[in-house]
Amino acid sequence: MNQVVLIGNISTPVEMKYTPNGHAVAKFNLAVNNPYNRDEVSFVPIETWRKTAENTATHCDKGSKVGIVGELKVEQYEKDGQKRTFTKVVAQTVEFLTPKGGSKGQDNTGNQGGYDDPFGGGAINISSDDLPF
User: Fold this and answer.
1) What distance lies between CA 131 and its chain's CA centroid?
2) Sign of CA dihedral 52, 57, 59, 63
3) What is the extent of the structural domain holding 86?
4) Cα–Cα distance measured from residue 94 to residue 9, given in angstroms and rounded to the nearest whole number
5) What is the per-residue pLDDT across 31-80, written as a single tens digit (0 to 9) for each?
6) Do the Cβ atoms of 29 and 43 come closer than 8 Å?
7) pTM for the complete prediction?
8) pLDDT at 112 over 70
């Protein structure tokens, strides 16, 4: 099985192109934090195709937080007589995690249920005598 799941922020402008056959291709780098060392960041090349590419280019920009599901692809080529290797993730799914209307690069946190908090986010004082157990 070859499946990669990443969450991070787009670190380069989304580059949109079309193949000679008219298929959309979007490319960008994704900044992904190391969960064990927050000071360490990996910049992962991402490539998307067709409608996913068009939607990503339309709705995302540098700084947008996204979730990626795709496959790891390793390409080998020769340049100046030396063999080189390039690794990227070809994303089948790009989930937009930056809130709609919010500034790009902002986390989608807080009240996500679509309702107002009746307690205003503050602490609730309840005496243990008021609890039924």
Assistant:
1) 43
2) positive
3) 4-100
4) 12
5) 999 888 888 999 999 999 999 999 999 999 999 999 999 999 999 999 89
6) yes
7) 0.71
8) no
Q: Is residue 33 part of a domain?
A: yes
Give domain status of residue 122, yes or no: no
- Answer yes or no: is pLDDT of 18 > 60: yes
Read off the CATH number of the domain in which 63 is found: 2.40.50.140
**Encoded tokens for 4:** 């990669």
118 belongs to a structural domain: no
Pick from 3, 7, 15: which is nearest to 97 by CA? 7
- Residue 131 within any structural domain of the chain: no
HSE-CB of 104 using CA atoms within 13 angstroms = 12
pLDDT for 35: 85
**pLDDT of 38:** 82
Number of domains in the chain: 1
Task: Count CB atoms within 10 A of the CB of residue 1.
Answer: 3
DSSP codes of every residue in 83-114: EEEEEEEEEEEEEE-SPTTSPTT----S--SS
